[in-house]
Amino acid sequence: MPKTGMRPIRRAQLIQATLGVIDQAGLANATMAGIARQAGTSTGIVSHYFGDKMGLLQATMRSVLRDLFRAMHDRRQALRDASPGARLHAMIDANFDASQISNAVRKTWLAFWSSSMHEPALQRLQRINQRRMQSNLCCVFLEAMPPDRARNAATGLAAMIDGLWLRAALSNDAADTELARRLAYQYVAFQLAGPARTPEKSSARKPA
Amino acid sequence: MPKTGMRPIRRAQLIQATLGVIDQAGLANATMAGIARQAGTSTGIVSHYFGDKMGLLQATMRSVLRDLFRAMHDRRQALRDASPGARLHAMIDANFDASQISNAVRKTWLAFWSSSMHEPALQRLQRINQRRMQSNLCCVFLEAMPPDRARNAATGLAAMIDGLWLRAALSNDAADTELARRLAYQYVAFQLAGPARTPEKSSARKPA
Amino acid sequence: MPKTGMRPIRRAQLIQATLGVIDQAGLANATMAGIARQAGTSTGIVSHYFGDKMGLLQATMRSVLRDLFRAMHDRRQALRDASPGARLHAMIDANFDASQISNAVRKTWLAFWSSSMHEPALQRLQRINQRRMQSNLCCVFLEAMPPDRARNAATGLAAMIDGLWLRAALSNDAADTELARRLAYQYVAFQLAGPARTPEKSSARKPA
Amino acid sequence: MPKTGMRPIRRAQLIQATLGVIDQAGLANATMAGIARQAGTSTGIVSHYFGDKMGLLQATMRSVLRDLFRAMHDRRQALRDASPGARLHAMIDANFDASQISNAVRKTWLAFWSSSMHEPALQRLQRINQRRMQSNLCCVFLEAMPPDRARNAATGLAAMIDGLWLRAALSNDAADTELARRLAYQYVAFQLAGPARTPEKSSARKPA
DNA sequence: AATGAATGAGTCTTCATTCAT
DNA sequence: CATGAATGAAGACTCATTCAT
What are the phi and psi torsion angles at A82 (to 5°)? Predict the structure, then answer.
């Protein structure tokens, strides 16, 4: 009697196992056998549900991205009519959310960044994510500044978040999260207060 | 007697080939055979000079790091007595130096970031690099602000640079470099002008 | 469900193939590919069942030892209440049993002797085997002589058997088996009749 | 200025190095590079003097055999007119001579035994050695018994010596040498005193 | 005579994938 | 649905041998 409705359960199981294995051994050392063992299933099951190793990795990455955007969405919903500053803080918080800062997710994310450069399938996901983040941030900045500056502010904040996040991932130190958040908040404050000096194309290159 | 003194030449050759292969195929797909072919040598030669694949990767990473710090050092020397702002700009420029922004180096760097999480040997190099960058930046900021703020400014700028650098790497678009530099300059200007609002531990978390 | 219970069958198959390859080409030239081909399987299967080449070799040696001791045990059981002489003959016969004198087994045994000196895993097996043989022989001799002499007789007979066995292996001549057995029987007769002259520590060294 | 007369010196050097490496790592792990390093020369030199790896191994084995027979010859010369017993003891002593019982020699010998089964060149040496030993022992026994018994006695003593020697090699215990010698002496005494019971072809097989 | 850099064939091992049950 | 046995291609690494100097 084939149990029905196993699909989503098994898939979630395997994605969790994938995250776990990448956390423990790294993407480069994540084998199908290891993932299946971690999930408590047989090796054949992965092909059955994801067709391919790449299929599993894509699904895993999609799952991580979905979690990130759900976190951002939830927090923005809760502050729908708040000030731009408050909403940007909420989005920053989402990026350092518990679901994002677990080691498993950090390592997975970083690994995907790296391998997305040579795997078109992952690259597409990565691009979508990046664009979505940029536009989400830009929307909020637009309420407080002209479009040109808003775009730059969004790019800068996105870079800031990624950079802080990357450092936290590399240093493997959960305590950094609080500092990371504060530095990101500070950057928002900088941008909302107006640029100290408008960055110009060339003259800014060699300031006294 | 056979040709002597081939050591450094061959090593440089092989490191260049490694960067090339990682650029084309990614670290995950970089095989010894491919690297040897790219270098125009036999496969055995890599073991001969680096002992191991990991030995070659370490040497390659070390080479990339050395280039980065040489670029920073050179630019700082040229501006030894300049203002903090000018020197920070020089350090930023070094990070977006031609030697750093080539695709090969970007991908290699990102790949190393990723795999350093599970390879102690690479992790060590990565940590050393991170600490050196932080302290170099901090030294300059200290001339313009109290130690506490200088440390945060250094961390923030380092994150900013990494984040911008990461985005450039992922988007694979060399044209972003100019924008990246401008955003980093802007961050320096923010910090040197004094914080818009001092980031505080908790009250800053939910600003109106 | 896939065929289950293949484990012992495949393992036996592969061990037989290992013996065959060592017989034909020698341990030094026994490759995994050759063994797999001989067994009619793919190369990967060896790792699947034995993990390692050394794992396969250990299992093979264990199998050979097990066969030897089973042969000895069977023959002793059949003569449970017989005289010491009869039981020692049975043990000698077991050592020159059909399962032991096949060329494959001889060469394998000799190869293991040699490589056991540098492979701790094999050395352990070798030591266990040696000790077990010594104690089995000693038990029987004890029924016919004082402990001191029994120990020496056991050591001597074990050496005799090994030496005869070794010569047979090296000369590659199956016909020697009969002679080997007779010489071993003779040694037993010598010992059971009482020593011609008690071997003494030093005075025996230069007898007239 | 090519130094002349280096040939024998270098050859001896390399043979010693070979013995050393086999002692430390085993024949299976003895590489040309390792031997050259141990000898303090370059890798190419081995080909230069021995042409081949097998050439070096043959020369090494020949050297070991030559040492054994020199030891036997010397001791027999010293006892030219002594009794058969004394001369047999001398030959036994030679086999457990200091030059023979060093670990390096033991392991080398055993390794050669093993690989001689598949290397015709080594096999030839091995056969010559075996035959020479047999005939040397037989000559002496012939002075004390009829040819038929002498042949058997020689075979038995040779087996005894090899077996004792083998056990000593495997147990890696130099202290066994004394016991080994005593057991070999005892065997000589047995044979010289006349067989306890003449070994017969079939009736001896199942004695009561 | 001697060096040691270079080669490349050969080996072990890993692993994604398939498939009969 | 699920299993896990089996495959075989691919990669890292070793090492005897060659050869220009």
Answer: -75, 180
